[in-house]
Design a protein that fits this description.
The complex is a heterodimer of chains A (about 325) and B (about 250).
Chain A (H helix, E strand, L loop, with lengths): L2 E12 L2 E12 L3 E5 L6 H8 L7 E6 L2 E2 L4 H7 E4 L11 H11 L4 H14 L15 H13 L5 E5 L7 H18 L2 E6 L2 H7 L2 E6 L2 E6 L1 H6 L4 E6 L3 H7 L5 E7 L2 E6 L2 H14 L6 E5 L3 H9 L3 H20 L1
Parallel strand pairs in A: 3-8, 3-9, 6-7, 7-8
Antiparallel strand pairs in A: 1-2, 1-4, 4-5, 9-10, 11-13, 11-14, 12-13
Helix pairs in contact in A: 3-4, 4-5
Chain B lengths: L1 H16 L1 H22 L12 H23 L1 H6 L2 H6 L5 H27 L9 H28 L6 H15 L14 H6 L1 H14 L6 H24 L4
Helix pairs in contact in B: 1-6, 2-3, 2-6, 3-6, 3-7, 3-10, 6-7, 6-11, 7-10, 7-11, 10-11
Classes of the chains: A alpha/beta (about 325), B mainly alpha (about 250).
């Protein structure tokens, strides 16, 4: 497989804040690659650098062999981008938004018209094409933006939080589109998300990013397998005691997280009664017990010691503190 | 060229659709014209300037209409910034100069169209355009005012975060420029110590130029008017292009 995107030691600093910290990886052609992490982890900053909107502090990256710093226009021609925040002209119709984009990318008139109709059909907006975007729902806008991003036939498509703020049904719908696009058109797709299920379902490979660093990079399956089987979560007033009590050979990992203990093991269904008996004989109280197959949330927790939600809260607090510092 | 046209085209489409904005921005100069014109026509004596205050006021109100519309058109970049549309334009493989020029021409065109509406309505309250040449001269000055102040608006918008500063700019920059320009009164009637200020105001030369075209009389030589407002348009365009290049999202 040919390399579509090559990133080497890419770093972005805003004054003292290191938003992206020396990341390196390759993305192959035709791959759906996910950047997964909490808000404020550096996903959008990475995307901004790759799309030439932001200059890296150090390091380099190429897209289809084109350097992002030396040939901005070359990169811009070969990428499509759907921003996290909406970027449509609400006063124009769907068709006019597409037409504006086509003209900006200098697509000849006849090809432009043909492609616009094709793409509006693809995202099922053809019967609304002459309506002003202001009247569109969130999902329709998102679909229009994706169609627009594809108009100039980019070989790489960036999707920044493509389903943020959408209802579950629309999200499912969009996932199907994105998967079809990658499969049928052979486009390389890089998407950022902080939804674990989205990354899990869509991506061939995932880079988990936290505080500007890549902390894990693999297929969703390998990442989850790395947890070591199923996960048993026990809630208890005395979690330390549980950690101390469990040392059976079939347990691969025991981690405490606040008042919960996560135990990784194969075939949890068989061993659960043994665990309960063990804890009972030691008179360790149990509030609740749950078994689930490992998710990317467990992967994130095992790498960072925090859930993605907690990390987001931390990032927000850091951001606020940082802003206060800058202001004074 | 096609990129400039694309940006211009978008401005036109938005303009035609914003009926309330069209009506809103002709209402102010129109009311000025009616209230001040009819209210002061019999009181004000204008020796050497045709004697009729309404006819004197018309070029000023045309200029006012062009001025306010163009500043507003330029400052609209802030909306594009806030609503995210600017990103779509900036990430395309086009130069920022092309975007800025398209925006300037789009803003200038809407401003001149707004000026024409006042001009057209003025025909019903006593304006007599004597010759085609005069009309074309007035048109030329309207275009130059439009370009100057759209570019001025873009320059301001490139440095502003949101619309909160807009009112400040309007009250402390645009309105004084308008007030000092001789749109409302002959500049010769001002006290001696204010007169130099008037001559420092670039809009004065735009207003006088339009007045020369429409009524055949002006207090400043029309060639001087053309050189000053033409030069100002150029300087503003360069400044606007420079600041727009550095715009941050």
């Amino acid at each position: 497989m040919a390399v579509a995107i090559h990133i080497q030691n890419l770093t972005k600093k805003f004054n003292d804040l290191v938003a992206v910290d020396n990341i390196s990886f390759d993305i192959e052609q035709g791959e759906i690659f996910g950047l997964l992490g909490p808000n404020g982890a550096g996903k959008t900053t990475t995307l901004s650098m790759l799309s030439t909107m932001l200059r890296p502090t150090s390091g380099s990256a190429t897209i289809n062999g084109i350097d992002i710093e030396h040939d901005e226009d070359g990169v811009r021609k070969s990428i499509g981008i759907v921003f996290q925040d909406q970027s449509l002209d609400e006063e124009l119709t769907a068709w006019e938004n597409m037409d504006f984009h086509g003209r900006l990318y200098r697509i000849p008139a006849d090809i432009r018209k043909q492609r616009i109709d094709e793409l509006l059909k693809l995202v099922e907006l053809e019967d609304r094409k002459n309506d002003i975007v202001k009247t569109f729902s969130g999902g329709m806008r998102r679909r229009l933006e994706i169609a627009r991003g594809l108009l100039h036939h980019p070989s790489v498509l960036f999707l920044d939080e493509p389903t943020l703020g959408l209802d579950p049904q629309t999200r499912n719908h969009l996932w199907v589109y994105i998967a079809t696009l990658a499969r049928e058109k052979g486009i390389t797709i890089i998407l950022t998300t902080h939804y674990m299920d989205e990354a899990d379902r869509l991506c061939n490979r995932i880079a988990i990013i936290d505080r500007g660093k890549i902390i894990a990079l693999d297929t969703p399956k390998n990442l989850k397998d790395g947890i070591g089987g199923d996960v048993v979560t026990i809630k208890s007033p005395d979690p330390e005691a549980i950690v101390g009590a469990l040392s059976e050979p079939w347990i691969t990992r025991v981690e405490r997280h606040h008042d919960e203990v996560n135990i990784s093991l194969q075939n949890a269904e068989h061993h659960i009664s043994t665990i309960v008996t063990l804890l009972n004989t030691r008179k360790i109280p149990i509030d609740s017990i749950a078994i689930h197959k490992p998710t990317l949330e467990d992967v994130f927790l095992s790498f960072t010691g925090k859930t993605i939600r907690e990390e987001e809260a931390d990032n927000k607090a850091n951001m606020r503190m940082y802003q206060r510092m800058v202001r004074h | 060229m096609d990129i400039i046209y694309t940006i211009w085209l978008r401005n036109m489409k938005r303009y035609i659709r914003s009926k309330s904005r069209i009506i809103g921005s002709i209402s102010m100069p129109l009311f000025f014209l009616l209230f001040l014109g009819f209210g002061l026509n019999s009181v004000v004596q204008l020796p050497g300037l045709g004697g009729n205050y309404i006819v004197f006021l018309i070029p000023g109100m045309v200029a006012m209409s062009v001025l306010f519309t163009s500043v507003f058109s330029g400052i609209q970049i802030i909306w594009d910034k806030q609503f995210g549309f600017l990103k779509e334009t900036l990430v395309a493989p086009v130069s920022r100069l092309e975007i800025m020029l398209g925006q300037t021409l789009g803003g200038a065109t809407t401003a001149v169209l707004q000026g024409f509406m006042i001009l057209f309505l003025s025909v019903f309250i006593g304006l007599r355009i004597s010759s085609l040449t005069g009309f074309l001269i007035a048109f030329g000055f309207m275009v130059l005012i439009g370009i100057s102040f759209t570019a001025f608006g873009i320059a301001i918008a490139s440095r502003m975060e949101d619309m909160t500063g807009f009112q400040l700019i309007m009250n402390f920059v645009v309105f004084p420029l308008f007030g000092l320009s001789g749109a409302l009164f002959p500049i010769s009637s001002l006290p001696e110590w204010i007169a130099p200020l008037t001559l420092l105001d670039p809009l004065t030369y735009g207003v006088e130029g339009i007045r020369y075209g429409l009524t055949g009389v002006s207090q400043v030589n029309p060639l001087v008017c053309f050189l000053v407002i033409g030069g100002f348009a150029l300087v503003m365009s360069v400044l606007g292009a420079f600041l727009f290049r550095k715009i941050k999202l």
